[in-house]
From TrEMBL:
Native source organism of the sequence: Trematosphaeria pertusa
UniProt keyword annotations, A-Z: Metal-binding, Mitochondrion, Oxidoreductase, Potassium, Thiamine pyrophosphate, Transit peptide
Name the UniProt record assigns to this protein: 2-oxoisovalerate dehydrogenase subunit alpha
GO cellular component term of the entry, any: mitochondrial matrix
Required co-factors: thiamine diphosphate
Lineage, highest ranks first: Eukaryota, Fungi, Dikarya, Ascomycota, Pezizomycotina
Reaction catalysis annotation: N(6)-[(R)-lipoyl]-L-lysyl-[protein] + 3-methyl-2-oxobutanoate + H(+) = N(6)-[(R)-S(8)-2-methylpropanoyldihydrolipoyl]-L-lysyl-[protein] + CO2
Gene3D superfamilies assigned to the protein according to its UniProt record, in alphabetical order: 3.40.50.970
Main location, first listed in the record: mitochondrion
Length: 464
């Protein structure tokens, strides 16, 4: 199969997209869907391009030459400002007001402080598990700030910044981490597997890449909804995943479905260099994840994830494209470096040099880059930085203390939300659990749960 690419420059960047043209010499201004075109063509004796349904518009050649990816230039990486915080195109600017930039900066700082404190809390045995976002704060906070609150989001497990930017409070984070009675998930998920119906963010799943086909399906539903409800502002589905998840079959199936159904979705890949302990050099041989978008016929862009202004502008434009002509998918590969360990269960220095990590910390990261921009406009200084960090640290620790003191969810929740009504088999299980808890009171500390054993009796009472 031969791929030819066209490009369209949008405000100083290039979005790569497959070229669609007719059999004549002029490019068609409006190309019908591929399934319609494939059924309409017929080969002619003088055709200069392939008209087979499986590979339209490929020019015939009598030269035998294989495509050699290593000889092609790498897809460029879009950025707005350099590592020193200087805007590269003064005429275009940053598309972000000063007050909004300050708010984004404060959210990124808050996220980094929370990550540090929760990592230490896990090491103290007060939390069972945690994952930090160090080095990737700009991707999560920046992209979330450019979306509509009504857009439906599917995260992986390193998108705490998406939740924070959307309005997930410190208490919401801490209640989930401790799985206490105020946890929206009622203690059914392991730590950092947040979810919020109010914020239109689906609950995180540990299983790698499952959220990608979920996004394609949700986007198809939203496409139908957008068509049926023209008076309601259109919505899109947004998916976050790492480059390691892109090695799963779910990634390929999802992108193919999204492309063939032309659904309004943005697929955001956080390429941070490592899939747990596997570096990208052992994950793929091609040009990152962005090169795969073209293969599926999807508009694609690669972005500097340390540049929050580039992340925001790319996401805004991707959302516009996703809603264009009824909907289509867009893939954005956001480049970053995972400064922290994969999780509290990982020691990354077993597979990478400490000096490599320290070099990235010192050389470039999204927080320091935005701070340099703010300082260059006299919006920030060391005194404000010190006051911000001190205040946010106190607020995080206060929320931590409140959540740690709360009781665990009622035991009855272990049986609820499975069937609309309790089955006879479930009631037998409840009775059996009650018997065990009564017979071995020293083995099970049920008083830490709201309502104790008595909460199980509520399940056995007849419904009125």
């Amino acid at each position: 199969m031969s791929l030819r690419f066209g490009s369209r420059r949008v405000r100083g960047r290039i979005i790569w997209r497959p070229t669609a043209c007719s059999n004549g010499s002029k490019t068609s201004s409006k190309v019908p869907p591929a399934w319609q075109t494939a059924r309409a063509v017929a080969s002619t004796p003088t055709a200069e391009k392939v008209l087979f349904p499986g590979a339209l518009n490929s020019e015939f050649t009598n030269t035998l030459k294989f495509l050699t990816p290593s000889t092609n230039k790498a897809i460029p990486t879009y950025r707005v400002m350099d590592q020193s915080g200087r805007v590269l195109d003064k005429e275009v600017g940053v598309d972000t007001g000063e007050e909004e930039a300050l708010a984004l900066y404060k959210n990124m700082v808050c996220l980094s402080i929370m990550d540090l404190l929760m990592f230490e809390a896990q090491r103290q045995g007060r939390l069972s598990f945690y994952m930090v976002s160090a080095g990737e704060e700009g991707i999560a906070v920046g992209s979330a700030s450019a979306l509509s609150p009504a857009d439906v989001i599917f995260c992986q497990y390193r998108e705490s910044g998406v939740y924070m930017q959307r309005g997930f409070t410190l208490d919401d984070f801490m209640n989930q981490l401790f799985s206490n009675r105020k946890d929206a998930g009622l203690g059914r998920n392991m730590p950092v597997h947040y979810g919020s119906k109010k914020l239109n963010i689906h609950t995180i799943s540990s299983t790698l890449a499952t959220q990608i086909p979920h996004t394609a399906g949700a986007a198809y539903a939203l496409k139908l909804q957008n068509m049926q409800q023209p008076d309601v502002p259109p919505r899109i589905a947004v998916c976050y995943f790492g480059e390691g998840a892109a090695s799963e079959g779910d990634f390929h199936a999802a992108l193919n479905i999204a492309a063939t159904r032309q659904v309004p979705a943005i697929f955001i890949c956080r390429n941070n260099g490592y899939a747990i302990s596997t570096p990208t050099s052992d994950q793929y041989r091609g040009d990152g994840i962005a090169s795969r978008g073209a293969g599926y016929g999807i508009d694609t862009l690669r972005v500097d994830g340390n540049d929050i202004f580039a992340v925001r502008r790319a996401t805004k434009e991707a959302r516009r494209l996703a809603l264009e002509n009824g909907g289509k998918p867009v893939l954005i590969e956001m480049m970053a470096y995972r400064v922290g360990h994969h999780s509290t269960s990982d020691d990354s220095f077993a597979y990478r040099q400490r000096v490599e990590v320290e070099d990235w910390k010192r050389r470039d990261n999204p927080i320091t880059r935005l701070r340099k921009w703010l300082e260059g406009r006299n919006l920030w200084d060391e005194d404000k930085e010190r006051e911000l960090r001190s205040r946010q640290r106190k607020e995080i620790l206060a929320a931590f203390d409140r959540a740690e003191k709360e009781k665990k969810p009622a035991i009855k929740h272990a049986f609820e939300d499975v069937w609309e009504h309790m089955t006879e088999e479930q009631k037998m299980h409840v009775e059996e659990l009650k018997d065990i808890l009564h017979r071995y009171p020293k083995e099970y500390d049920v008083e830490q749960h709201e309502g104790g054993v008595a909460s199980l009796d509520e399940l056995l009472q007849p419904k009125r």
